Amino acid sequence: MTLPTYAPRPSPAAERASRARRTALLAVAIGGLTVLLSLLVLAGRSRGPPPPHSPSASASASASGSDRQRGPLSGTLGGGRFPPVPALALDEAAAPNTIRLRSGLGMPAIGYGTCCRPSAKGEAVYSSTLAYLKLGGRLVDTAMAYRNHVDIGRAAKDSGIPRPKLWITSKVAPGKVKTYGECLKAVDEILDELDTEYLDLLLIHTPKLGKELTIELWRCLIEAKRLGKSRAIGVSNFNRGEIQDLVEGTGEMPEANEIQYHPWSAPKWKDLAKWHRENEVATIAYTSLGGSRFHKEGGASRWPPPAKILASRHSATEAQILLKWALGRGAAVIPGSGSKAHINENLLLPKFELTEAELTSIEKAEAPEAWWDTKRGPMKYVNEEADLPWVKRKNG
Fold this sequence. Notes:
The protein has 396 residues and is an alpha/beta fold. 43% of the residues lie in helices and 9% in strands.
């Protein structure tokens, strides 16, 4: 029988030396991994912007002298370089949900509109915008045509909220901008007036210039995004055919379309909102609460019965029910008001969701009297204008 043999037990000194060698090797491995990770991070920070969407657009930008990079460079997304995405920057109470854009950006669902009322300019819009931001709101919607960029930019600065936690939307005005070069210049002017390095969303305000000129403006917005001047781009008041023409002409689909959208919008425009969802285009609804004329003429006392019933059922106001309708249909909202109490009411929506039956009951009701300005129409735009691209609109 063969007896087993055993290796002699090493001395305590030898064991200590072996452990020391193993510890040293482990430290070297960890150090090497740390260096490798650091190099990867530095490489990501130093990587330049991707190639332009369109060679001709890039060349035109260089020729115009408007190709300077703006903004702090820390991370990339969707062409151009931007600050980190504040996907859920709002407090929960002020942001019952966030609209996720196709690029992955999280857009606050309850914004602040600054159009079409006496309090939308000067100190009034400065004060109301500042109140909105102080109450927890984070998305401000403006435009070249509103002529209030400077006051809104001042409110944003005075709010003390870090820029990456704000969402600023503005729009290029086709009435003032008609060429690619003029558009790039206008984008820089918007940024200067707002005193910001970049926009979160830049839109073409209307399709009023017709197909060919509007496609050139769309090329401009694509370039503005590539240069880091806007994190996302889209359109406003466009119908399906007009959006499809932009895509056919440039290969780039808008990330959002801002339209008049409420329970009594024309059926074809409601169909457009459904098409938006199917094609990952965010719907931003304006005139969600009927406009300033509706409220000036006491319209709030004439809400349709379903709105009153649902308001009572859910311990909400009728205005909150109308905003819940838009959110329930997947749209962001941008109600405007000069009243701090109404701004707070719009922001702090009760935490409930309307059922499909409740949403439909509102749509089937008659539109409240004075819901719209008769010169602009209750269904701006009508069904025909939703079907036919590049037709003249009642208001652009």
